[in-house]
Protein backbone atom coordinates (compact mmCIF):
# COMPACT_ATOMS: atom_id res chain seq x y z
CA UNK A 1 0.00 0.00 0.00
CA UNK A 2 2.83 2.39 0.93
CA UNK A 3 4.52 1.74 -2.44
CA UNK A 4 1.25 2.55 -4.21
CA UNK A 5 1.00 5.92 -2.42
CA UNK A 6 4.62 6.71 -3.19
CA UNK A 7 4.05 5.90 -6.85
CA UNK A 8 0.90 8.03 -6.95
CA UNK A 9 2.69 10.91 -5.23
CA UNK A 10 5.56 10.68 -7.75
CA UNK A 11 3.11 10.58 -10.64
CA UNK A 12 1.20 13.62 -9.39
CA UNK A 13 4.45 15.54 -8.86
CA UNK A 14 5.63 14.70 -12.37
CA UNK A 15 2.31 15.83 -13.82
CA UNK A 16 2.43 19.07 -11.81
CA UNK A 17 5.66 20.33 -13.38
CA UNK A 18 6.72 20.95 -16.97
CA UNK A 19 7.39 17.52 -18.43
CA UNK A 20 10.58 17.69 -20.51
CA UNK A 21 10.68 14.70 -22.83
CA UNK A 22 13.78 12.45 -22.60
CA UNK A 23 15.74 11.41 -25.67
CA UNK A 24 16.81 13.91 -28.29
CA UNK A 25 15.36 16.55 -30.60
CA UNK A 26 14.19 13.93 -33.05
CA UNK A 27 12.27 12.28 -30.21
CA UNK A 28 10.61 15.60 -29.37
CA UNK A 29 9.60 16.43 -32.93
CA UNK A 30 8.38 12.89 -33.62
CA UNK A 31 6.24 13.12 -30.50
CA UNK A 32 4.95 16.54 -31.56
CA UNK A 33 3.97 15.20 -34.98
CA UNK A 34 2.05 12.31 -33.41
CA UNK A 35 0.07 14.51 -30.99
CA UNK A 36 -0.08 17.60 -33.24
CA UNK A 37 1.46 20.00 -30.77
CA UNK A 38 4.21 22.61 -31.17
CA UNK A 39 7.61 22.02 -29.56
CA UNK A 40 9.02 24.14 -26.74
CA UNK A 41 12.83 24.00 -26.45
CA UNK A 42 14.65 25.49 -23.49
CA UNK A 43 18.26 26.15 -24.53
CA UNK A 44 20.18 26.04 -21.25
CA UNK A 45 23.47 25.12 -19.60
CA UNK A 46 23.84 22.92 -16.50
CA UNK A 47 26.32 25.47 -15.10
CA UNK A 48 24.08 28.50 -15.74
CA UNK A 49 22.75 29.89 -12.45
CA UNK A 50 20.11 31.93 -14.28
CA UNK A 51 18.86 28.74 -15.94
CA UNK A 52 18.65 27.09 -12.52
CA UNK A 53 16.45 29.93 -11.31
CA UNK A 54 13.80 28.84 -13.84
CA UNK A 55 13.47 25.36 -12.32
CA UNK A 56 11.13 26.45 -9.49
CA UNK A 57 8.95 28.19 -12.08
CA UNK A 58 8.81 25.08 -14.27
CA UNK A 59 7.86 23.09 -11.16
CA UNK A 60 4.78 25.20 -10.44
CA UNK A 61 1.57 23.23 -11.14
CA UNK A 62 0.01 26.09 -13.12
CA UNK A 63 3.08 26.40 -15.35
CA UNK A 64 3.33 22.63 -15.72
CA UNK A 65 -0.30 22.33 -16.77
CA UNK A 66 0.02 25.21 -19.22
CA UNK A 67 3.02 23.72 -21.02
CA UNK A 68 2.06 20.05 -20.77
CA UNK A 69 -1.38 20.74 -22.24
CA UNK A 70 -0.05 22.79 -25.15
CA UNK A 71 3.52 21.76 -26.00
CA UNK A 72 5.98 18.92 -26.26
CA UNK A 73 8.85 20.26 -24.15
CA UNK A 74 12.56 19.50 -24.49
CA UNK A 75 15.70 20.81 -22.76
CA UNK A 76 18.69 21.41 -25.05
CA UNK A 77 22.12 21.66 -23.40
CA UNK A 78 23.98 24.37 -25.30
CA UNK A 79 27.29 22.60 -24.64
CA UNK A 80 26.19 19.45 -26.47
CA UNK A 81 27.02 18.54 -30.06
CA UNK A 82 23.29 18.22 -30.66
CA UNK A 83 22.77 21.86 -29.68
CA UNK A 84 25.69 23.15 -31.71
CA UNK A 85 24.52 21.29 -34.80
CA UNK A 86 20.89 22.32 -34.42
CA UNK A 87 21.60 26.00 -33.76
CA UNK A 88 24.03 26.17 -36.69
CA UNK A 89 21.54 24.51 -39.04
CA UNK A 90 18.80 26.86 -37.89
CA UNK A 91 21.09 29.89 -38.17
CA UNK A 92 20.42 30.98 -34.61
CA UNK A 93 22.48 32.93 -32.08
CA UNK A 94 21.97 32.56 -28.33
CA UNK A 95 22.40 36.07 -26.85
CA UNK A 96 21.93 34.82 -23.30
CA UNK A 97 20.66 31.80 -21.41
CA UNK A 98 18.13 30.41 -21.13
CA UNK A 99 16.67 30.94 -24.58
CA UNK A 100 13.10 29.81 -25.24
CA UNK A 101 12.49 28.45 -28.75
CA UNK A 102 9.10 27.40 -30.08
CA UNK A 103 8.66 25.35 -33.26
CA UNK A 104 5.73 23.83 -35.05
CA UNK A 105 5.78 20.09 -35.60
CA UNK A 106 7.46 20.62 -39.00
CA UNK A 107 10.47 22.36 -37.41
CA UNK A 108 9.43 25.87 -38.45
CA UNK A 109 10.39 28.54 -35.93
CA UNK A 110 7.37 30.23 -34.37
CA UNK A 111 8.90 32.29 -31.59
CA UNK A 112 12.21 32.89 -29.82
CA UNK A 113 12.81 34.95 -26.70
CA UNK A 114 14.97 35.52 -23.65
CA UNK A 115 12.90 36.32 -20.59
CA UNK A 116 12.78 36.70 -16.82
CA UNK A 117 12.10 33.84 -14.42
CA UNK A 118 8.55 34.73 -13.45
CA UNK A 119 5.44 32.63 -13.90
CA UNK A 120 3.79 35.49 -15.77
CA UNK A 121 6.60 35.77 -18.34
CA UNK A 122 7.08 32.02 -18.75
CA UNK A 123 3.40 31.36 -19.46
CA UNK A 124 3.01 34.66 -21.32
CA UNK A 125 5.83 33.74 -23.70
CA UNK A 126 4.18 30.41 -24.37
CA UNK A 127 0.90 32.19 -25.11
CA UNK A 128 2.66 34.48 -27.59
CA UNK A 129 4.12 31.48 -29.38
CA UNK A 130 0.62 30.07 -29.83
CA UNK A 131 -0.85 33.32 -31.14
CA UNK A 132 -0.12 34.07 -34.84
CA UNK A 133 -0.79 37.77 -34.20
CA UNK A 134 1.82 38.01 -31.44
CA UNK A 135 4.57 35.49 -32.11
CA UNK A 136 7.94 36.47 -33.53
CA UNK A 137 7.44 34.79 -36.90
CA UNK A 138 4.90 37.53 -37.63
CA UNK A 139 7.08 40.47 -36.56
CA UNK A 140 8.35 41.23 -40.06
CA UNK A 141 4.82 41.52 -41.41
CA UNK A 142 3.73 43.72 -38.47
CA UNK A 143 6.68 46.04 -39.09
CA UNK A 144 5.91 46.22 -42.81
CA UNK A 145 2.32 47.17 -41.99
CA UNK A 146 3.50 50.11 -39.90
CA UNK A 147 3.57 48.91 -36.28
CA UNK A 148 5.95 51.32 -34.54
CA UNK A 149 5.08 50.77 -30.89
CA UNK A 150 8.29 50.98 -28.85
CA UNK A 151 7.59 47.72 -26.99
CA UNK A 152 7.07 45.86 -30.26
CA UNK A 153 10.20 47.34 -31.84
CA UNK A 154 12.22 46.36 -28.77
CA UNK A 155 10.99 42.76 -28.99
CA UNK A 156 11.55 42.63 -32.75
CA UNK A 157 15.11 43.99 -32.49
CA UNK A 158 16.01 41.31 -29.96
CA UNK A 159 14.52 38.65 -32.23
CA UNK A 160 16.60 39.87 -35.19
CA UNK A 161 19.73 39.17 -33.15
CA UNK A 162 18.63 35.61 -32.46
CA UNK A 163 17.88 34.85 -36.13
CA UNK A 164 20.93 36.78 -37.45
CA UNK A 165 18.88 39.24 -39.52
CA UNK A 166 21.22 42.24 -39.57
CA UNK A 167 19.35 44.11 -42.31
CA UNK A 168 16.09 44.04 -40.36
CA UNK A 169 17.95 44.81 -37.14
CA UNK A 170 19.27 48.10 -38.55
CA UNK A 171 15.82 49.09 -39.85
CA UNK A 172 14.05 48.20 -36.63
CA UNK A 173 16.59 49.86 -34.34
CA UNK A 174 16.42 53.05 -36.42
CA UNK A 175 12.64 53.00 -35.99
CA UNK A 176 13.02 52.32 -32.28
CA UNK A 177 15.34 55.31 -31.81
CA UNK A 178 12.67 57.51 -33.41
CA UNK A 179 9.88 56.00 -31.30
CA UNK A 180 11.31 57.20 -27.97
CA UNK A 181 12.38 60.62 -26.69
CA UNK A 182 16.10 61.49 -26.32
CA UNK A 183 15.45 61.74 -22.58
CA UNK A 184 14.77 57.98 -22.65
CA UNK A 185 17.98 57.03 -24.45
CA UNK A 186 19.97 56.32 -21.29
CA UNK A 187 17.24 54.01 -19.96
CA UNK A 188 17.40 52.17 -23.31
CA UNK A 189 20.91 50.91 -22.47
CA UNK A 190 19.78 47.25 -22.04
CA UNK A 191 18.63 47.29 -25.67
CA UNK A 192 21.84 48.98 -26.82
CA UNK A 193 23.73 46.22 -25.05
CA UNK A 194 21.66 43.32 -26.37
CA UNK A 195 20.38 44.36 -29.79
CA UNK A 196 22.19 47.32 -31.37
CA UNK A 197 24.53 46.45 -34.26
CA UNK A 198 24.96 49.79 -36.01
CA UNK A 199 27.15 52.71 -34.91
CA UNK A 200 25.22 54.92 -37.35
CA UNK A 201 22.07 54.62 -35.23
CA UNK A 202 21.14 57.82 -33.38
CA UNK A 203 20.92 55.83 -30.14
CA UNK A 204 24.61 55.04 -30.50
CA UNK A 205 25.49 58.59 -31.50
CA UNK A 206 23.96 59.79 -28.25
CA UNK A 207 25.57 56.94 -26.32
CA UNK A 208 29.13 57.58 -27.52
CA UNK A 209 28.85 61.34 -26.88
CA UNK A 210 27.28 60.98 -23.42
CA UNK A 211 29.23 58.06 -21.97
CA UNK A 212 29.35 59.49 -18.45
CA UNK A 213 25.56 59.45 -18.25
CA UNK A 214 25.57 55.73 -19.01
CA UNK A 215 28.49 55.01 -16.65
CA UNK A 216 26.63 56.66 -13.77
CA UNK A 217 23.65 54.32 -14.16
CA UNK A 218 25.39 51.13 -15.34
CA UNK A 219 28.57 49.23 -14.61
CA UNK A 220 31.38 51.00 -16.52
CA UNK A 221 32.65 47.62 -17.77
CA UNK A 222 29.21 46.90 -19.27
CA UNK A 223 29.18 50.30 -20.98
CA UNK A 224 32.63 49.68 -22.44
CA UNK A 225 31.73 46.20 -23.64
CA UNK A 226 28.44 47.33 -25.18
CA UNK A 227 30.14 50.13 -27.09
CA UNK A 228 32.90 47.84 -28.30
CA UNK A 229 30.36 45.29 -29.51
CA UNK A 230 28.47 47.87 -31.60
CA UNK A 231 31.68 49.28 -33.09
CA UNK A 232 33.05 45.88 -34.09
CA UNK A 233 29.69 44.75 -35.48
CA UNK A 234 29.64 47.90 -37.62
CA UNK A 235 33.21 47.65 -38.89
CA UNK A 236 32.91 43.99 -39.88
CA UNK A 237 29.38 44.01 -41.30
CA UNK A 238 28.28 44.09 -44.93
CA UNK A 239 27.35 47.71 -44.31
CA UNK A 240 30.87 48.35 -43.05
CA UNK A 241 32.16 47.04 -46.37
CA UNK A 242 30.39 49.95 -48.06
CA UNK A 243 31.51 52.70 -45.68
CA UNK A 244 34.10 55.27 -46.69
CA UNK A 245 37.60 55.05 -45.24
CA UNK A 246 37.01 58.35 -43.42
CA UNK A 247 33.85 57.04 -41.81
CA UNK A 248 35.55 53.79 -40.80
CA UNK A 249 38.36 55.78 -39.20
CA UNK A 250 35.78 57.85 -37.31
CA UNK A 251 33.88 54.81 -36.04
CA UNK A 252 37.15 53.15 -34.98
CA UNK A 253 38.14 56.27 -33.03
CA UNK A 254 35.16 55.66 -30.74
CA UNK A 255 37.22 52.85 -29.19
CA UNK A 256 39.50 55.52 -27.72
CA UNK A 257 36.50 57.25 -26.13
CA UNK A 258 35.54 53.94 -24.53
CA UNK A 259 38.98 53.63 -22.94
CA UNK A 260 40.82 51.33 -25.35
CA UNK A 261 44.40 52.22 -26.26
CA UNK A 262 45.57 53.31 -29.71
CA UNK A 263 47.25 49.95 -30.36
CA UNK A 264 43.91 48.21 -29.97
CA UNK A 265 42.18 50.73 -32.21
CA UNK A 266 44.81 50.41 -34.96
CA UNK A 267 44.64 46.64 -34.81
CA UNK A 268 40.84 46.33 -34.78
CA UNK A 269 40.26 48.74 -37.66
CA UNK A 270 43.15 47.80 -39.96
CA UNK A 271 41.42 45.49 -42.43
CA UNK A 272 38.13 47.42 -42.74
CA UNK A 273 40.05 50.63 -43.36
CA UNK A 274 42.45 49.04 -45.86
CA UNK A 275 39.55 47.46 -47.74
CA UNK A 276 37.92 50.88 -48.03
CA UNK A 277 41.14 52.60 -49.11
CA UNK A 278 41.77 50.06 -51.86
CA UNK A 279 38.14 50.31 -52.92
CA UNK A 280 38.63 54.08 -53.20
CA UNK A 281 41.94 53.53 -55.06
CA UNK A 282 43.88 55.47 -52.42
CA UNK A 283 47.05 53.41 -52.72
CA UNK A 284 49.45 55.76 -50.95
CA UNK A 285 47.07 56.17 -48.01
CA UNK A 286 46.73 52.38 -47.78
CA UNK A 287 50.51 51.95 -47.55
CA UNK A 288 50.67 54.73 -44.96
CA UNK A 289 47.95 52.93 -42.98
CA UNK A 290 49.99 49.71 -43.05
CA UNK A 291 53.09 51.56 -41.85
CA UNK A 292 51.14 53.17 -39.02
CA UNK A 293 49.87 49.76 -37.96
CA UNK A 294 53.40 48.33 -37.96
CA UNK A 295 54.78 51.22 -35.90
CA UNK A 296 51.93 51.18 -33.38
CA UNK A 297 51.40 47.46 -32.83
CA UNK A 298 54.83 45.89 -33.54
CA UNK A 299 53.34 42.67 -34.95
CA UNK A 300 54.93 39.24 -35.15
CA UNK A 301 55.90 37.12 -38.19
CA UNK A 302 52.38 35.74 -38.69
CA UNK A 303 50.95 39.24 -39.08
CA UNK A 304 53.74 40.25 -41.48
CA UNK A 305 53.13 37.15 -43.58
CA UNK A 306 49.37 37.70 -43.62
CA UNK A 307 49.75 41.28 -44.85
CA UNK A 308 52.33 40.23 -47.46
CA UNK A 309 49.66 37.96 -48.98
CA UNK A 310 46.75 40.35 -48.40
CA UNK A 311 48.21 43.36 -50.21
CA UNK A 312 48.83 41.76 -53.66
CA UNK A 313 45.34 40.28 -53.52
CA UNK A 314 43.94 43.81 -53.22
CA UNK A 315 46.09 45.72 -55.69
CA UNK A 316 48.65 45.15 -58.44
CA UNK A 317 50.09 48.63 -58.04
CA UNK A 318 53.94 48.45 -58.02
CA UNK A 319 54.07 50.34 -54.71
CA UNK A 320 51.77 47.79 -53.11
CA UNK A 321 53.72 44.84 -54.52
CA UNK A 322 56.96 46.35 -53.25
CA UNK A 323 55.47 46.78 -49.77
CA UNK A 324 54.22 43.17 -49.83
CA UNK A 325 57.70 41.88 -50.71
CA UNK A 326 59.19 43.96 -47.92
CA UNK A 327 56.72 42.53 -45.40
CA UNK A 328 57.40 38.97 -46.55
CA UNK A 329 61.14 39.49 -46.10
CA UNK A 330 60.60 40.88 -42.61
CA UNK A 331 58.38 37.92 -41.74
CA UNK A 332 61.17 35.52 -42.67
CA UNK A 333 63.66 37.41 -40.48
CA UNK A 334 61.44 37.30 -37.40
From TrEMBL:
Give the signal peptide, or none. Answer: 1-16
Sorted alphabetically, which InterPro entries does this protein's record hold?
Answer: Thioredoxin-like_sf
Q: Which SUPFAM superfamilies does the UniProt record give?
A: Thioredoxin-like
Top-level lineage group = Bacteria
- Which key words are in the record? Signal
Designated name of the protein: Thioredoxin-like
What organism is listed for this UniProt entry?
Siphonobacter aquaeclarae
